[in-house]
Amino acid sequence: MKAYLGIDVGSVTTKFAVLDSNDTLMADLYTRTMGRPIQVVQEGLRQMADLLPPGVEIASVGATGSARQLTGVIVGADVVKNEITAQAVGATHFFPEAQTVLEIGGQDSKLILLRDGMVTDFAMNTVCAAGTGSFLDQQAHRLNLPVEEIGPLALHAKQPVRIAGRCTVFAESDMIHKQQMGHALDDILYGLCQALARNFLNNLALGKQILPVVVFQGGVAANAGMVCAFEEVLDQEVVVPPYHGVMGAIGAALLAHEYMARNGGTTRFKGFEASQIAYQPRSFECTGCSNLCEVVEIRAERQVLARWGGRCGKWEM
């Protein structure tokens, strides 16, 4: 049985997805990156090998996410694509009529506009943590709550309070102030969800037409309070895909399948045995010009496998 593997390595979480030849999900894995992408990818390969039934042959591999280049080298990816493309492909696979994709990850958030299945515009917020999964994680830890409980608690709000959501520092101080005033925790949490939804739209959606079907994906889509807040702010239904947390990995697997169907040939996948290879990453500063680019290099058994990061392509391998 031929199958297609997609890997999405982000700053906070790493996702795996394997699709069969009919693009049906066979197995998936959602885990924490923990600042160790190489080790987490290798451990993920070991777990995916155990999840798949005997006789499955990985015919092609796609990598995406902020560590997509590193992942591509580790596993031997056939396709390395940015998160915008992978998320859009994943969304249209489940919702062919999708015209707007809201994606909130651990370190950034994305708004993707689709028309007739093609990406026509997008916006990313990579400079402000307000509205990202890591900020929700931080607030859950401060409140001594599992982050999974924020959504259900927020839906019990009776009088949501307004939280300043333009900045993480102001949002946190405003939440503390509202707690000290005696507001109920449910009302504060839903106020936080509303603030994050407003922040997302104010940063990314200005001047853009948000048309249905609106698809909300990424780890934060598991938060029912955020879904409700987006529906309230947008005044329209927001749908959540069944595998919202691994949509980037599913998109990467779909792209890998498309690549192999179009080009044929043999996959560059190193096999699940890649989990046993000892990789040594390092970086150095190129002094060839005034740009002083930071070049990343990865080796295995003293052999240089890849370099990237330079603007001029001098070190690319």
Highlighted features:
five-stranded mixed β-sheet; 25% strand; Nucleotidyltransferase, domain 5; 9 helices; alpha/beta; 317 residues; 35% helix; globular; 3 domains
Please state how the strands of the largest beta sheet are arranged side by side.
Answer: 3-2-1-4-5
Main pleated-sheet profile: 5 strands, mixed
CATH architecture of the largest domain: 2-Layer Sandwich
Fraction of residues in β-strands: 25-35%
- State the helicity in percent bands: 25-40%
Helix and strand composition category:
alpha/beta
Q: State the CATH topology of the largest domain.
A: Nucleotidyltransferase, domain 5
The unreliable regions are: none
Total beta-strand segments = 13
Shape: globular
The value of Rg in angstroms is 21 Å
- What is the total number of structural domains? 3
The end-to-end distance, rounded to whole angstroms, is 33 Å
Number of helices: 9
